[in-house]
Design a protein that fits this description.
By secondary structure, the protein is mainly alpha-helical. The relative contact order is 0.15.
């Protein structure tokens, strides 16, 4: 891999965070229905908030690193100021990761605002 970013690792960690977030949200919703003690609900909410903050941070880092490619080469590789040169496959993978994180973040904001 030509970048300091381990895209496979980022993809796996992102998928894990999304899955854990989803599971924790369901658990929290269930806890509210069954009258789980406030302390336990607070721990669940703190875990949800931590994952949301981590995902927002990841989105910001990836967006900043890929904001404006400085060059696209004939072989399809892309030069990003914040990352360096990545081959065409890595560039697509990076875009897919960023897209999934940004979609998740948009859904989170939409759910939080009730729209």
């Amino acid at each position: 891999m030509s970048t300091s970013y381990n895209l496979d690792g980022i993809r796996v960690q992102t998928a894990r965070m999304l899955e854990i977030y989803s599971l924790l949200r369901r658990e929290l919703e269930g806890a509210n229905k069954i009258g789980m003690p406030q302390e336990a609900r607070g721990r669940l909410q703190q875990a949800v908030d931590t994952i949301a903050a981590n995902m927002a941070q990841l989105a910001a880092q990836l967006a900043a690193a890929t904001e404006t490619p400085s060059a696209v080469h004939d072989d399809g590789s892309v030069e990003y100021p914040g990352i360096g040169r990545v081959d065409a496959v890595e560039a697509r993978e990076l875009e897919e990761i960023l897209d999934s994180v940004l979609k998740w973040h948009a859904e989170l904001i939409q759910n939080d605002t009730g729209e």
